[in-house]
UniProtKB/TrEMBL annotation:
Lineage, top ranks: Bacteria, Bacillati, Actinomycetota, Actinomycetes, Kitasatosporales
Full protein name: Thiamine pyrophosphate enzyme N-terminal TPP-binding domain-containing protein
PANTHER family: ACETOLACTATE SYNTHASE CATALYTIC SUBUNIT, MITOCHONDRIAL, THIAMINE PYROPHOSPHATE ENZYMES
GO biological process, one term: L-valine biosynthetic process
Any one of the GO CC terms: acetolactate synthase complex
Organism encoding this protein: Streptomyces rubellomurinus (strain ATCC 31215)
């Protein structure tokens, strides 16, 4: 006959105070010294600017759907080039291959 072991659940820990999340340093806004506020910047512009700031130079993707607004600032960028693919899966595979071949970040933009 096999013996079944019993499992004792750990005692529940005391829940943190409700306002603890508001005091978390991870939620504090971090801004570089002397940086101008980002007023008037769309999410799409912020996305492309952040890609530029981290040194991304190539993006694989296909415009359409929810990602379409990001293509206006992407086309205006002089630092990030876009490689058009025929299918979203192709963009993912191309970004993976790019990362493996170059050691840089591979970026896929898809819906």
């Amino acid at each position: 006959m096999s013996q079944l072991s019993t499992f004792a659940a750990p005692a529940p820990e005391a829940a943190p105070p409700e306002d603890a999340a508001l005091e978390s340093p991870a939620l504090e806004a971090v801004s570089p010294e002397g940086a101008a506020p980002a007023a008037g910047v769309t999410g799409a512009e912020a996305l492309i600017r952040s890609l530029e700031e981290v040194g991304v130079d190539t993006v694989f993707g296909i415009p359409g759907g929810a990602i379409l607004p990001a293509y206006d600032p992407l086309m205006d960028s002089t630092e990030v080039r876009h490689i058009l693919v025929r299918h979203e899966q192709g963009a993912g595979h191309a970004a993976t291959g790019y990362a493996q071949a170059t050691g840089r970040v591979g970026v896929c933009m898809a819906t």
